[in-house]
Amino acid sequence: MTGVDLDSIDLKHCEALDAADPLARFRERFALPDGVIYLDGNSLGALPKTALDRTAEVVGREWGESLIRGWTAHRWIDLPRIVGDKIGRLTGAEPGEVLVADSTSVNLFKLMAAALRLRPERRVILSERSNFPTDLYIAEGLIELLGGRHELRLADGTDIEGAIDDDTALVSLTHVNYRTGALHDMAAITARAHRAGALVLWDLAHSVGAVPVDLNGAGADFAVGCGYKYLNGGPGAPAFLFAARRHHAELRPALSGWMGHAAPFAFETGYRPAQGLERMLTGTPSVIGLAALEVGVDLMLEADGAALRAKSMTLGRLFAKLVERRCGRYGFRLASPADEASRGSQICFAHEHGYPIVQALIARGVIGDFRAPDILRFGFAPLYVGHADIWHAVDHLVTVMESREWDRPEFQTRASVT
Amino acid sequence: MTGVDLDSIDLKHCEALDAADPLARFRERFALPDGVIYLDGNSLGALPKTALDRTAEVVGREWGESLIRGWTAHRWIDLPRIVGDKIGRLTGAEPGEVLVADSTSVNLFKLMAAALRLRPERRVILSERSNFPTDLYIAEGLIELLGGRHELRLADGTDIEGAIDDDTALVSLTHVNYRTGALHDMAAITARAHRAGALVLWDLAHSVGAVPVDLNGAGADFAVGCGYKYLNGGPGAPAFLFAARRHHAELRPALSGWMGHAAPFAFETGYRPAQGLERMLTGTPSVIGLAALEVGVDLMLEADGAALRAKSMTLGRLFAKLVERRCGRYGFRLASPADEASRGSQICFAHEHGYPIVQALIARGVIGDFRAPDILRFGFAPLYVGHADIWHAVDHLVTVMESREWDRPEFQTRASVT
Asked: N6-(pyridoxal phosphate)lysine occurs at which residues (chains A, B) (predicted)?
């Protein structure tokens, strides 16, 4: 955005930025509906056009024609590893360090349970008070299952390093906060935890595909992540898990299902863990979901990571500036870090009428989302959101506020999912 | 099969049986490849033709056009319950007693953990030595995670009732044995367990969709089952879990993810379990997989359960008789119960050359499978397997044995999945 004055930028400038955008060509690879400005790719990513062909192929040709033979003929059995290795390339992991399986929540359980076993003398899982709830709930459930010997200790996001002590078994954090977009310094926190003898688990749900992630560069022990946000894997896409190779031989799987057995098809009576990370697999892989996810991951692999981050930051900066400039008098308070190096690919504002404002925007085709109690959340998926989209989105916001459109009765009723 | 003499039955008789089969009309609802006789629907069910349209719709229209709004607009969020209730109708459960989620293995873990908490003073999970391995492995992993206070006790399938004692917390059995097809008496074993104060968990992987299941009629406490076998939900389809309503309020979820929270979208810091069985949900539902599974379940709901069982028994009886009559001299030993009321919808033979014989049959388009060490397994999905198919399958077996086709080198190499 060199040479562009954010205080005077207009639609024409935005269109010029789109024309010069090296990622602009990806937009046509997605099937986005007409009239929609989609600023919720951090909740559910858009549909890659080829995902439709690929799911038709896996259902019609692979399942329909190969039937049971598909497990070998189409390498269904290897998909957790194949797609996992591709995600590994997006996250600074080596081949064999990432597997696609289950949901993020289930993977959190697997890795938290494994981590506590690696630090049997320690009692504390340390997390962030405003972490995504499932990360906290899963830790709670595990601790209760284990009889309450452990403790989930919660700190503010800025106090994590100071809260790590000799009793910390595991530091469990989400790389980019789901509500505010605040970005943790993965390398610094991991180093601090390691100095204290603790392990670290990173949830990459809101970073992979939008923010550079270098798990091995940061020395991370474990990670989980989501397939349906910036990876564009489809609703309820399977999730992934990472464990650094140095831990593989010591990992004891709590969810010791047949797919994690050393010889799943020998049908032995007793469990023997597979050699590598495959021991963390549990049940039969979700083949159709894996096939759709692979399309999204392949598309992401075509894009340059540095360009993704640069564009994401530009979009965020532009959005924040335009809201400040054009909606300054309506009481929006920036809820994301003001320093763009400290935030992910989203901008959030707090507003007392956050819920109906988001609904009014959605009715206009500007899809962001609301997070209780008062957060308007806008995500910028750099593969398919453009600079002019940002201009138009703020234009709609101006209208919604000026005309008090948000005050209409139909925007007040809370739906269960937003 | 009234009036048909199995000792003299021929192809013409088989074709007459197909012509009179009230379930024959379902065959055309499946996309089965030409030249294939599919006797492996108990491993991966065939493709319902409409599953292709439905997955295209959920991907192209629902995901592509509704994007995040699909969670409410297309009721994705309710699919675990909607499809669960439909499976409930196939298994003698009430609405709200079945949920579709995760894999069978993960659901086993959830229910076993919950069951042990309901019987805190008891130490034993009792299972069958020849149970499907993942059922045993998951129990092992749970017991190890809990610190070894519990014990997995294994009995022979015929000795289960005698092995239940005052220390039995949970009896965990598969309704129809995956290798032999032996069918347990669900009501009798459940009653015996209850008299001893134990709970019972039934794995319906090889029964739902082929054998009558009446969970509440039998007084069952818990059940799990598979979506990709007789329910024809596609490779790696999501699985299901059942808990009798009398237990819901006391269930403490070990995998306490956000989807099982009383208010998932309030994003509270602490976990509060949902009111009913929904507390056993964990992560985000696998929407595409659920949509494909629903097609298979809907198709199964169109069929009459008594007709399914009657046809399945006829097919099994016919297959066993023809192998005995036409391949008697080749050393096949029936590995399934001889009494057809005591077996599910499959017939297994033990044979020292079981592996290459199965491979030779597959090369001829007769798809059954091999289960170590020496079992040839043939499943009869009554919705799409006909009587003439059985005749032709045995015809191929006769040729494979007579010509020693199985002895060819290409049939000796073991693949990892069969």
From this structure: 229
**Residue B78 CA, distance from chain mean position:** 23
Residue B228 known to bind ligand: yes
Task: Identify which of A140, A277, A226, A128 has the alpha carbon closest to the alpha carbon of residue B255.
Answer: A140
Mutate to test the interface with A, among B28, B77, B256 (most CBs of A within 10 A): B256
CA distance A394 to A328: 12
What is the DSSP code string of A256-286? --GGGBSSGGG--SS--B-SSGGGG--S---
Architecture of domain B11-30+304-411: Alpha-Beta Complex (3.90)
- Round to whole Å and give the CA distance between A123 and A4: 52
What are the tens digits of pLDDT across the range B217-250? 999 999 999 999 999 999 999 999 999 999 999 9
Is B323 a residue whose pLDDT tops 90?
Answer: yes
Q: Give the one of B154, B258, B369 whose C-beta lies nearest to A134's C-beta.
A: B258
Which of A59, A102, A136, A154 to mutate to test binding with chain B, by most B CBs within 10 Å of its CB? Answer: A59
Annotation-wise, does A48 bind a ligand?
A: no
Task: Report the complex ipTM.
Answer: 0.97
Catalytic residue, from A109, A132, A240, A411: name it.
A132
pLDDT digits (tens, 9 = 90+) for A340-389: 999 999 999 999 999 999 999 999 999 999 998 899 999 999 999 999 99
Q: How many CB atoms lie within 10 A of CB B392?
A: 16
Q: Per residue in A251-261, pLDDT tens?
A: 999 999 999 99
pLDDT for res A415: 61
| Closest in B40, B257, B289 to A286, CB measured | B289
Q: Please report which confidence band the pLDDT of residue B63 belongs to, taking 50, 70 and 90 as the band edges.
A: very high
CA A334, CA A350: separation in Å to the nearest integer? Answer: 6
**Is the Cβ of B61 closer than 8 Å to some Cβ of chain A?**
no
Sequence spans of domains, chain A: 11-30+304-411, 52-302
The residue among A45, A40, A46 whose CA lies nearest residue A393 is A40
List B30, B38, B109, B132, catalytic entry: B132
- List all residues of chain B from 75 to 94 with a beta carbon under 8 Å from chain A: 76-77
Amino acid identity, residue B293?
L
Site of tokens 């818990």: B222
Per CATH, the number for B52-302 is: 3.40.640.10
- Contact status of B369 with chain A (Cβ, < 8 Å): yes
Q: What is the mean pLDDT of residues B308-335?
A: 96
